[in-house]
Task: inverse folding
């Protein structure tokens, strides 16, 4: 049996579940409309879920990016200090983060595509629900009981099928997002502590080495300055005394 | 006849296109059975393209039930098989 025929059966089965067997066909219009509003709510909530998933990935990417930038800066600082090995280490860790970032970007693209599809689904359903609302009042007013039976039944089946389609589209997006949500959860854990921070936390080792090198050079400079002072200058005490006396003398000289 | 492409919408396709659609559907069906991912994508693209070009999109205020339903245009073989498997037992069971 063909794929189309089986899909037709699947959609019909889903649609039948949405149909109420109201005694009065006019009543079934209102019941169906209620269901349409509920469907629309569900699709909208689903859009919000996907948007949240997208934002989460964006946040993770920006965290990884700032760590990568930090490593880049550290590599530069290490080179300035002439420590090429340290610079190399920082760049290697940065490359590992770049790989994670590429992966996140792929996920972001996929989630964005799902988001757009759901937005389209919501808009289409919204347009149908809107026109159904006006049409159902016309139907109630104009159809005779006999006409109502068939025409209303058809319209309700038709829009119910659209709701089934929207439901399937929603489920499909959800399935795709679920897998990514699991990965995003894992990434959050990695960012908080664990394997990823094995890459990024030792950044502090690099920082410690940079700090140590910079402290050492500051101390060396201060030491050299002190040595210069002690080695060449006169005994400190008289010099201090002399400098204290000078302003006093200047004071006396100045005209009032 | 009215044909729905899932996730896309409905088209009014002339009845004399039925044979063409059936042939394209047969190709899709064999790709599903043989598990041929590339063949599946090609057959699905051929079927959806035919529905769109031979048919006319229904307006949003046209609430007609469809005569035929085509899978999501960008469906993978895997998800199509999963959908068919999920519903295989509940819709008559004459699909084997």
Result:
């Amino acid at each position: 049996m063909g794929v189309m025929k089986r899909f037709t059966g699947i959609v019909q089965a889903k649609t039948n579940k949405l149909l109420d067997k109201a005694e009065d066909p006019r009543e079934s219009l209102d019941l169906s409309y209620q269901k349409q509003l509920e469907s629309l709510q569900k699709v909208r909530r689903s859009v919000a879920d996907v948007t949240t998933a997208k934002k989460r990935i964006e946040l993770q990417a920006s965290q990884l990016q700032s760590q990568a930038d930090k490593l880049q800066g550290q590599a530069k600082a290490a080179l300035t200090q002439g420590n090429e090995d340290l610079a190399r280490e920082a760049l290697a860790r940065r490359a590992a983060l770049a790989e994670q970032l590429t992966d996140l970007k792929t996920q972001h693209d996929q989630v964005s595509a799902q988001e757009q599809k759901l937005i389209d689904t919501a808009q289409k359903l919204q347009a149908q629900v809107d026109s159904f609302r006006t049409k159902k009042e016309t139907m109630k007013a104009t159809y005779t009981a006999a006409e109502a039976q068939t025409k209303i039944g058809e319209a309700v089946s038709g829009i119910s099928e659209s709701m089934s389609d929207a439901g399937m589209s929603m489920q499909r997006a959800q399935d795709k997002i679920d897998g990514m949500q699991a990965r995003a959860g894992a990434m959050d854990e990695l960012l908080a502590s664990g394997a990823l921070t094995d890459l990024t936390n030792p950044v502090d080792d690099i920082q410690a080495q940079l700090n140590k090198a910079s402290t050492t050079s500051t101390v060396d400079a201060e030491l050299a300055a002190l040595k210069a002072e002690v080695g060449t200058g006169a005994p400190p005490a008289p010099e201090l005394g002399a400098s204290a006396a000078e302003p006093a003398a200047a004071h006396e000289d100045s005209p009032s | 006849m009215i044909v729905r492409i899932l996730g896309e919408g409905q088209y009014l396709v002339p009845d004399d296109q039925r044979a063409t659609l059936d042939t394209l559907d047969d190709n899709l069906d064999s790709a599903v059975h043989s598990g041929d991912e590339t063949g599946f994508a090609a057959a699905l693209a051929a079927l959806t393209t035919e529905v769109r070009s031979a048919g006319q999109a229904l307006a949003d205020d046209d609430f007609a039930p469809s005569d035929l339903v085509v899978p999501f245009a960008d469906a993978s073989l895997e998800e199509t098989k999963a959908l068919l498997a999920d519903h295989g037992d509940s819709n008559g069971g004459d699909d084997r």
Remarks:
- Residues 241-252 of chain A have pLDDT under 50 and may be disordered.
- The interface with chain B takes residues 1-13, 15, 117, 121, 124, 127-128, 131-132, 135, 154-159, 161-162, 165, 168-169, 172, 175 of chain A (CB under 8 Å).
- The radius of gyration of chain A is 37 Å.
